[in-house]
Amino acid sequence: MSRAMSQPPLKIGVLIGSVRPGRFADKVSQWFLSEIGRRDDMETHVIDLSEPALAGELKLTLERSAAPDDAPTLAERIGGLDGFVVVTPEYNHGYPASLKLAIDYVYREWRAKPVGFVSYGGMAGGQRAVEQLRQVFAELHAVTLRDTVSFHMAWEQFDDEGRPHDTDGTSKAASVLLDQLAWWGLTLREGRAARPYDG
């Protein structure tokens, strides 16, 4: 999708929610980052909860200590973005505890921004995790997108190079999600600029 020259690209955060060693999130997120990288209307910012700085910040939060001051805080990173795509697995019919902690650590910075989902798991493809996350983000005044990308029996859906076997189908699903994200991202960015959101 091409953007009007007068519009700066949307700053989109890709939030990787799993922190497990050997996580499958790396394959899913790298594929999705390649899809979003084809667009000129979006600027991608990866927020990987396994990053040492973020992991340390969230750990200190649990200990009720001050966050490190040598890197932007999670709230600052979230606050500077126009929209998000959460890459999440499904663990025991839910989403990871690390993701819940990160979402709850930030509050006002989520408001009036769109959130999309790329999920993966077993037979349900992570959809139960997504449905729970919709409720959480609604409480934070964020707008969740209707269409998602999900990988059922995810470990069977990718080749050894990290590419989906169904390249056409997955690319089409990603395009639908990103088109919705672009519409909501631009609309809500303009809305926040015209009338700060105080809901």
Automatic annotation (TrEMBL):
<dbReference type="Pfam" id="PF03358">
    <property type="entry name" value="FMN_red"/>
</dbReference>
<protein>
    <submittedName>
        <fullName>NAD(P)H-dependent oxidoreductase</fullName>
    </submittedName>
</protein>
<feature type="domain" description="NADPH-dependent FMN reductase-like">
    <location>
        <begin position="11"/>
        <end position="155"/>
    </location>
</feature>
<dbReference type="InterPro" id="IPR050712">
    <property type="entry name" value="NAD(P)H-dep_reductase"/>
</dbReference>
<dbReference type="InterPro" id="IPR005025">
    <property type="entry name" value="FMN_Rdtase-like_dom"/>
</dbReference>
<dbReference type="InterPro" id="IPR029039">
    <property type="entry name" value="Flavoprotein-like_sf"/>
</dbReference>
